[in-house]
Amino acid sequence: MCRYFKIVTLGGDKYSSYLKEEIEQKGRVHFGWGWHDLRQLKNSQKLNDSEKVVWRYSKFMLERLNKGDRLVVQFERPLRKFMIVEVSGEYGYNDPPGDDFNHFRPCRTLTPLIDIDSAVVSRALRHDLSKRGHYYQIYSEDTIQELDELIKEEKWNAPQYSEKRTVEAEWADTIETVVPSTFEIIGRKWKATSFEQFVARLVENIPGIEVSRAGDSRKGWDMLIRIFDPLSGEIMFDEVPVQCKNHIGIVNTERPIEDLKRCIENSGKSIAYLFILGDLPDQFTYKINNLQQALTSRLNQEIKLVVVDQEQIAKLFMRYWQ
Q1: pLDDT tens per residue, range 52-87
Q2: Three-class SS string for the chain?
């Protein structure tokens, strides 16, 4: 049985065409976090914080994948189309390197871009391909069998490929439409400090979490929360700092990152949350992970920085609004 992995390689306006062309024309599938050659990092005696982040998030390209493994590749979010390729060679690194997406594995293209809403894609397959994460292995035997059949039978050429999964497709489209409109409304209705009140109300509505202290601390957090064990009801984490930020458009400031750093340093806790509206560029995520690694190294304990983005906020509101 072939091993299947799902990978997300979001190139945005700058890299989207390049990533697809590399697969179709050169037979090379790329992955992000591409600022260091993984072969050099593996042989390095000591990594700096930036190198540790790159190694953590992309080492699977070097160590996990084998020839013959199949990759389901997603190029955009939300997931609209996917392509399946088969790994055919060893890890490589762009020479000369570009700004990003320098990691690659030689590959053989097995499918064209497949419409996720096509009638040939089952609801179960769509679910297994829509999980969060930049990459993960697909273990479901039913999903693996469906992917095998999709390739073997070339279902993209079948008459029913152009048909849409009516109810399921409409349901998915509705969610993808409602979520953006929801976080846009939240952003307009709850501006500046009132967004902190919105987050406090939202958190209080989520089972197993309560606000222990609200209000700007001047120490980095806007509230402290208490998280309970769902089985025993005992307190798992207490006085956890939460930072709230309401931005419009692309988040191009490092203030939220600086405040997260202050949260950890001033609270003495090992975990902090950031509820943030706005479009988060890849560089923002990279800097968050870099800070997490730097704090872990400096404080000699594992630090967790959790970002709750606008899509998650909208979905939480839709689920726990009452």
Answers
A1: 888 888 899 999 999 999 999 999 888 889 999 999
A2: CCCEEEEECCCHHHHHHHHHHHHHHHCEEEECCCCCCHHHHHHCCCCCHHHHHHHHHHCHHHHCCCCCCEEEEECCCCCCEEEEEEECCCCEECCCCCCCCCEEEEEEECCCCEECCECCCCHHHHHHHCCCCCEEEECCHHHHHHHHHHHHCCHHHCHHHHCECHHHHHHHHHHHHHHHHHHHHHHHHCCCCHHHHHHHHHHHHCCCEEEEEECCCCCCCCEEEEEECCCCCCEEEEEEEEEEEEEEEECCCCHHHHHHHHHHHHHCCCEEEEEEEEECCHHHHHHHHHHHHHHHHHHCCCCEEEEECHHHHHHHHHHHCC
pLDDT in tens, 132-158: 778 899 999 999 999 999 999 999 998
Structural domain contains residue 60: yes
Domain assignment present for residue 312? The answer is: yes
- Do 277 and 207 belong together in one domain? yes
Question: For residue 121, what is the domain's CATH number?
Answer: 3.10.590
- Model confidence pLDDT, tens digit, residues 273-310: 999 999 888 778 888 988 998 999 899 999 999 999 99
Residues spanned by the domain of 193: 188-320
